[in-house]
């Protein structure tokens, strides 16, 4: 299999004049971007970033971030992208765990990087902000002299990327991925989303997250355009879609939700968008319906996966099959095992909720965590990866993801998943967003509670009547409604149920002041 450096060269050789990268006023074709990547790679090599060495980047989705990613692929260095919101101690943990030779930062992350424990031993590069002390400005990287021809120095078996998962407890886990893992995942993404040559995508999903990396690589596979968007702004996103003739979107549901809200205030021509994809969290049925109506896409993909096994399943007709995550991707095998399963062979019956697992021999699957045998022991079993996600297969064999094992609500001895309840409530016209959790209950163990943001006035009695009129089983109905200003989410749009359980939210104006 080709490595990723040679993969990029394919696009340079096929379509040197095709527009490849846009970041504000910066517009580069493949030949021009290749030249910039060569300069940056030359500079990184001079700082010790050779084959197998790690390069830490605490940057937003700017052109320098995308360029460093590709430079690492040519050098054989391992890209280590980190959330630009990380705190000094979080940066310090990754410095100690990954042991990079170079760290890049920008204004928004400068303080955290400069204060991180252990940063003094690492070469530091300031991007778009003033360098201090012995730091190097990004513009100086590889400048001032002849830049040698850029040749791929990695092979398919070399590590390409070290992603850090955002765990809810304890330190994050490093997920090392080889060039062949990443290329197989990009090819699978192209195939399953029916991308054609010259596609154009909005590069807003963060490049420290697998969704962002997949958008970056898949565009290179098809000689396409990656339009950088450092920080999501719904109004700006609509403007970029129209201005750059974006053809495909791959976002988390939250960003689609915010984009539709902005569209109500500002008319935008979205006619060039013909393919929608989402991942990262289930999409409420009401949002699916609204997106289908607004975009009328040729393809609407629900992509279920993880950093460890990029694609677990794909549903290519998401609007017609709400909630369905489809079937195993082209590079994957999956199973649903019983929640109390002794091993991977103990599969759940159709309709029975269990834990979703994926075959580690799949082309996109990782091989184990970075220096974490404890995490391997918990998540890897007999050649299968235990995702920690719950779900079931229907009689057709389609997968439905219902939540996390840790999010399961147990009320009166019954297992209740939040996702089904959230989807039902999302269909009420007054509900904007909803998150369901299990609150402690002396009699039942846990009670189902719905945290709701509204687009129109509504009360608990009306929402309860809506649930009673639906197909939702009686024991799954929320017993408490909490009206809040906003649902807490992670930077990539995942609902943070733990914050709701901890009381870390603000009640909506006029809502009862007693918190559960």
Secondary structure topology:
Elements (H helix, E strand, L loop, with lengths): L3 H11 L4 E5 L2 E4 H17 L7 E5 L4 H13 L2 E4 L6 H11 L3 E5 H8 L8 E5 L8 E2 L21 E6 L9 E5 H14 L7 E4 L6 H12 L3 E4 L5 H10 L4 E4 L1 H11 L11 E4 L6 H11 L3 E7 L5 E5 L8 E5 L5 E5 L15 E6 L13 H7 E2 L2 E10 L5 E6 L4 E3 L2 E3 L1 H9 L4 E11 L3 E10 L5 H9 L11 E4 L13 H5 L15
Parallel strand pairs: 1-11, 3-4, 3-5, 5-6, 6-7, 10-11, 12-13, 13-14, 25-26
Antiparallel strand pairs: 1-2, 8-9, 14-15, 15-16, 16-21, 17-18, 18-20, 19-20, 20-21, 22-23, 24-25
Mean pLDDT reading:
94
Assigned CATH architecture of the domain at 232-406: 3-Layer(aba) Sandwich
Distance between the termini: 55 Å
CATH topology grouping of the domain at 232-406: Rossmann fold
Query: CATH class of the domain at 232-406, please?
Result: Alpha Beta
Shape: globular
Overall strand count = 26
The CATH homologous superfamily of the domain at 232-406 is named ANL, N-terminal domain
Proportion in β-strands: 25-35%
State the helical fraction: 25-40%
Rg, rounded, reads 23 Å
Family: Belongs to the ATP-dependent AMP-binding enzyme family.
InterPro entries: AMP-bd_C, AMP-bd_C_sf, AMP-binding_CS, AMP-dep_synth/lig_dom, ANL_N_sf
GO molecular function, one term: medium-chain fatty acid-CoA ligase activity
Organism: Paracandidimonas soli
